[in-house]
Amino acid sequence: MDALLNDIATVVGQGNVLTGADVVTRRVDWLSGEPCRAGAIVRPADTDELASVMRLCHAARQPVVAHGGLTGLVHGATTAPHELAISLERLSAIEALDPIGGTLTVQAGVPLQRVQEAAEAEGLQFPLDLGARGSCTIGGNIATNAGGVRVIRYGMMRQQVLGLEAVLADGTVVSSLNRMLKNNAGYDLKQLFIGSEGTLGIVTRAVLKLQPRLPSEQTALVACPDFEALTALLRHLGHRLGGALGTFEVMWDNHYRLLTEESGRHAPPLALGAPFYVLVESLGLDPERNAVQFTEALEAALADRLISDAVVAQSATQRDALWAIREDIEGLLQTLAPLFTFDISLPIAEMATYVAELESALARDWPEGRLVVFGHLGDGNLHVSVSVGSAEREVRCAVEHLVYAPLTPLGGSVSAEHGIGLEKRDYLSLSRSPEEIALMRTLKRALDPHHLLNPHKVLPPAPEDTP
Amino acid sequence: MDALLNDIATVVGQGNVLTGADVVTRRVDWLSGEPCRAGAIVRPADTDELASVMRLCHAARQPVVAHGGLTGLVHGATTAPHELAISLERLSAIEALDPIGGTLTVQAGVPLQRVQEAAEAEGLQFPLDLGARGSCTIGGNIATNAGGVRVIRYGMMRQQVLGLEAVLADGTVVSSLNRMLKNNAGYDLKQLFIGSEGTLGIVTRAVLKLQPRLPSEQTALVACPDFEALTALLRHLGHRLGGALGTFEVMWDNHYRLLTEESGRHAPPLALGAPFYVLVESLGLDPERNAVQFTEALEAALADRLISDAVVAQSATQRDALWAIREDIEGLLQTLAPLFTFDISLPIAEMATYVAELESALARDWPEGRLVVFGHLGDGNLHVSVSVGSAEREVRCAVEHLVYAPLTPLGGSVSAEHGIGLEKRDYLSLSRSPEEIALMRTLKRALDPHHLLNPHKVLPPAPEDTP
After folding, report:
1. What CA–CA distance (Å, rounded) separates B64 from B79?
2. Most CB atoms within 10 A, among A50, B149, B191, B385?
3. B226: which chain A residues are within 8 Å (Cβ-Cβ)?
4. Which fold has domain A2-87?
């Protein structure tokens, strides 16, 4: 690897080939704090330098792992000592903002929050939003097809990308920096790179679609008497708020109770005892009209017994206090450690049964175990946390089996928004058929025949890959 | 081919292998009326039959062309005598509607309008809409990534598809009938089949995402004093109407004048003389609130001189009369025949210059020529019609050159929503780089190494394809 690193240093400069302590002091997983074990970290300045680096790596058959903000949750950026990490941190420029077309052209290493701020400075918004906004990068958001708390209104990252540029395994630069909403000139190549976790190419630049700002946010926490009422409420608000429904975040009672009464971390804004609590937001232009529409929709839901109780935030402070319960991941980790967390999706209609059966199965195998459920219900996405008093590998496998196996007959997914990485690779076949996995392998072989890009991630090893 | 057709008849039944007069009486192009010249038309009943047919075709190296509603505009369904047409017309069932998840599972041969009606019957909407709604099919909408008049609000067909099933060239069935908004379990394979015009697989079923209905439509026709005001108006309405802006359809004065005063086909709702006329719609829940918001937004635009005149439809009849001008394609064809029509996209900021320069270039080469421009401005999509008194092939080529060549430096596209088919195949390289086209070929080779699926469409012949 030394000769190759020397060649790479002539491209990026010696100071941009990190080794030794400069490597291991980086964490590749914020949850576990796992250090980076890459053979070296290479920091190209731009697309051309990255292309040159990849040509060298291709000639040397050197595998690489692209690093963005390293906030992923599925070990998608884990890098082995025989692999190189390619950090996109120096590709950090916001290149162009087109206020007429409503587009922003950025380099891959720009953090999400800087993109949000650049859009806001122009009176627009970039609607993708998630807790890691300050650290995660646009390149990583694209590579993982990030989701977050606005998917019900604006879709996932895939919907926010008009064009992109990527470097292929052999160093070819594929530049598809389309700026139009419509472009049907041949295959939509950017789709290959969105959500494929750096296994088909390394994203270097992107054209993002901006949206008109909706300055008025109405926020409420409501309690639902049963699951039927919960799904009826989702539909009711969809109809009554039209395109304004921006958030529908559900907390099962086990989640709400833990983070309020039980842990004492948050004062409960609504009395305990309901099976479901929902954080609801309506996004609008005119605060007054938006408030009237929102209140009327909630009043109608109360009258129809879709909700049993509600509190509407009257200030930004109150709004933050409601969100703080939903977003208190630290509280979950602290009170339930050791904890296994899952990110799954399934048809909404199947959720109640799924959770009830999971609860029974866990209680059977771990009578002292705890189950906590919350999620983006409108997106079909649940975050399931399980604590059984152990973090052992075999225990984790047993719990994974209980969580994932029932998804297959329901047409659910072992990954809603976090991706597959290494962590869920061996469960991919629970959500995707042999024909689908074979087609994924066909794509991987076609674009990266020498397995140089983020090797071993996403796809389980094929029989022909085993020496 | 006869032996193969006999084998196919044992799969689909003799009555579903059409030959002779049953073939040539079908039109594969509604604009030209070109008859079908396929060796035969095969009509499988379901996915399994199609898979069997494709296995037979694969073994015999028999090329096929999938046929949907045959309303395409780029000769994407043209079928040669040595090719088989595969008609999806018998895959015409609406299989399931999930009102809780807001999804509709349909077979590929279902016409768009039936999908819209099925959604409306449930109090929901399927937002994709275009003039051919009664004939075009969901499979064709997916294969061409259809656009239409609601893209500015809801996106193209790609955004409406949650899952799909396709049959590959070798008869493999890839079933990805995902029903969730979020599913990051491995590569998003459906993206391969959306917009690839039947060259990578044949779509057989799809899960479509439905939206809450927005029953109130406010419609106005406005006149704009110049292009700067036009783009400022687009942005102004985006901000003032928030997510409610549903349509922003621009007619250049040459289009408006032709279809009103000059042809006498429509009474002009606004006086002639402005350079641009825009059909604007706001979609809302509450007719009263929507109307107030819409009127206020237009009044502000008048005060700011973004518009010089406006008429708001006061009834469905008035609304239809406004749309009738914009949608009068027959009027264009009749008054300007022989006519060449184009569907292009380019960054909005570049449009005025592009059209002015095209006008000069045409006037230089054909002083009697006519140029008519309208389009989905908010999407970056213009429909350009050119009449130079001839329909000759060489004349068409010369005009194509004038229309397409200036798009390359602007980052524009030779196809916004119609696709490439045969018609634009030789112009693909004006909109896509050699690296992009090479990657498209890599995909085609990986999925259809024997060139059996809609051969010769989309991609120009590669050197290695020439015998």
Report:
1. 8
2. A50
3. none
4. 3.30.43
